[in-house]
Structures are given as structure tokens and as C-alpha cells.
Design goal:
- By secondary structure, the chain is α/β, with parallel strands linked by helices.
- It folds into 2 domains: about 180 residues, Vaccinia Virus protein VP39 (Rossmann fold); about 60 residues, no CATH class.
- The protein has 12 helices and 10 strands.
- The longest helix is centred in the first third of the chain and has 14 residues.
- It binds S-adenosylmethionine.
- S-adenosylmethionine binds next to α2 and α7.
Length: about 280
């Protein structure tokens, strides 16, 4: 048996912002999204992002704010907002400011702003000054960042009654590991390699010459959670450049409870590979 703690066995990791924060990396990520994302390839996945609308129409009775966290150019929020009244205030927040600005331009809102944030350390400050009900969105972000601390941080910033919609990429079956191995090809492909290799090249301190290797590992902070990783392998070291967690629905629901959020609804795609949760800050 290996007696080392899990975090010691894993390789050092890139901060996720290093994959997205420059305009050119943002453009390369968008190419990956256009070529590989199930959201664009499968209408049933796109529909997930409008399904919460009828319930939200009942919950959002007056003026509300929409806080779009890690929204990129706001494609998914735009779909939802087609079915909702225009928010009184819209904040688009992402580590990539040019993408956040694009989201703020395209999304409806009586007042709008865009800002650069690092969700691993803080949330945008205007949130705490808002008085009306806020609807937060967090789409496509949970797989890349440590999920439970992130959900806790967001929940702490929410006021009573505020709503959080978030998505997760799931692994089918009881254990995420076999499911994650089956969909490795969604990650190990030329556009994703091109994006991640560009991120490696621009990273400082410079990494030694090496190659990308994709595989499935346990999350270093939660051993029963499957994580697809792209590691930069060089003769002397391995660095985890990218990771995407593939929880089961049960694991996501444990995080919701641990973050002291209440699950209002869950919308699951027919293949069981992606879901959107509507949650609310408990009293
Ligand atoms: C996989 S993309 C998802 C984008 C979009 N929400 C969607 O679902 O299509 C992850 C997004 O999170 C942003 N992001 C990654 N790390 C971040 C961080 N530490 N703080 C804030 N945003 C981050 C990226 O810039 C990117 O827009």
C-alpha cells in the first residue's frame, strides 16, 4: 500500500488561469470548444441550459442581477436569457477580460459590467453591494477548478434566496473512472493539444522540452473523484497542465450539501455526461 498522502503523489499543476487568461489562449480555447464541445454537437446538451427557465420565472419575481462567473463569451447565458426577463444588472466575470467584455456586449441587461477575476482567490467585489436577488451562473468551470472550495466560496458570497446555476461534466456509471477513460478522446485530439501546447510555451518559468500525455487519475484532493489530466512529461518532471473532473451525480450532490446550498432541480442530458443544477443559498 502506498502510504504517501494523495497530494504528494500527484504532479505540480498549472493554475487554470494560465490556460485562458491571454487573448490568444482564449481564441485557441474557443477553437477547441467549436470543434469538440458536446454543447455544440448535441442539441440535447444545448437544451439543458434553457430547462431551468420555467422554474426561474417563478423564483425571479422582481428585478434581479445576473452574475456570470467564468462565462467566456456568454454563449450559455445568452441561451438562458432568451427565456427570462432582462436582468437589472449584468456582470460578466472571467479570468479572460476580452471574453468577459464580449459576454457583456452580447448579453441583455439594463446596466452591464465586465471584470477580470480569479475564482480561485476571490469573487468580484460588486456582488456584495447588490441589494436585489442575484442569479449566479457557473458553467463549464467546475471541472477545471477545485470544486468544493469554489462552491463554498460562491455560497458564502450569496445572500439568502440567491440562486446558483452550475454545470458539471459527468462520468457515466457508478465509478467515474471507467466512464472517464471512455471519453478520453474528447480531450486527446489535435485542437486541444494545440491549445495546451501554446499554454505550455507561454508559461513562465519555462518548462523543459517534453510532450503531452492524457490519462485518468484520482483527484489529488478527493481520491474517489476521476480526473482527466493532460500532463507535460519531460525526462525529469511531470506537470499537470490541464485537468477536468468527471464526478458522478451523487458526488456533485454531496458538494452541494457541503457548501450549504439547497438543490432545487437537476437537469441531466440523456447520455448522462453533463448536467445543470439549480441551487439556492440556504437561510
Ligand atoms: C471551459 S471554459 C467554460 C466557458 C463557458 N462558461 C462555457 O461553459 O462555455 C472555462 C472558463 O473559465 C474561465 N476560467 C478558468 N479559470 C478561471 C479562474 N481561475 N478564474 C476565473 N475564470 C476562470 C476561463 O477563462 C473560461 O472562460
Amino acid at each position: 500500500m502506498n502510504s504517501k498522502p494523495a497530494h504528494r503523489r500527484s504532479s505540480p499543476e498549472f493554475p487554470t488561469s494560465a490556460l485562458y487568461s491571454s487573448p490568444s489562449l482564449g481564441r485557441l480555447w474557443k477553437k477547441v470548444h467549436l470543434a469538440c464541445s458536446p454543447f455544440l454537437r448535441r442539441p440535447s446538451v444545448r437544451r439543458l441550459y434553457q430547462k431551468p427557465a420555467p422554474q426561474l420565472l417563478k423564483l425571479l419575481r422582481g428585478p434581479y442581477s445576473l452574475i456570470a462567473l467564468g462565462c467566456a463569451d456568454g454563449t450559455k447565458e445568452a441561451l438562458l436569457l432568451k427565456k427570462l426577463p432582462k436582468p437589472a444588472y449584468l456582470l460578466a466575470a472571467d479570468t479572460n477580460l476580452s471574453l468577459a467584455r464580449r459576454a457583456a456586449r452580447r448579453l441583455p441587461g439594463l446596466k452591464k459590467a465586465a471584470c477580470q477575476i480569479d475564482l480561485t482567490t476571490h469573487l468580484p467585489s460588486p456582488i456584495s453591494h447588490l441589494r436585489r436577488l442575484s442569479l449566479f451562473t457557473l458553467y463549464g468551470v467546475l471541472p477545471n477548478l477545485d470544486p468544493l472550495p469554489l462552491l463554498r466560496r460562491i455560497a458564502q458570497r450569496m445572500s439568502r434566496g440567491d440562486l446558483l446555476l452550475f454545470s458539471a461534466n459527468l462520468a457515466r456509471g457508478r465509478s467515474g473512472f471507467a466512464g472517464a477513460r471512455k471519453i478520453l478522446h474528447q480531450y486527446d485530439n489535435p485542437p486541444t493539444r494545440c491549445w495546451l501546447e501554446a499554454a505550455v510555451k507561454s508559461y513562465r518559468p519555462k518548462l523543459p522540452t517534453g510532450r503531452l500525455q492524457f490519462s485518468v487519475h484520482p483527484d489529488p484532493r478527493q481520491e474517489n473523484l476521476a480526473r482527466i489530466e493532460a500532463r507535460w512529461i519531460s525526462p525529469r518532471k511531470a506537470v499537470t497542465v490541464f485537468s477536468s473532473r468527471r464526478p458522478t451525480t451523487a458526488q456533485v450532490e454531496t458538494w452541494i450539501r457541503s457548501a450549504r446550498l439547497k438543490r432545487l432541480s437537476r437537469f441531466l442530458d440523456p447520455r448522462g455526461e453533463e448536467a445543470v443544477w439549480l441551487t439556492q443559498r440556504q437561510g
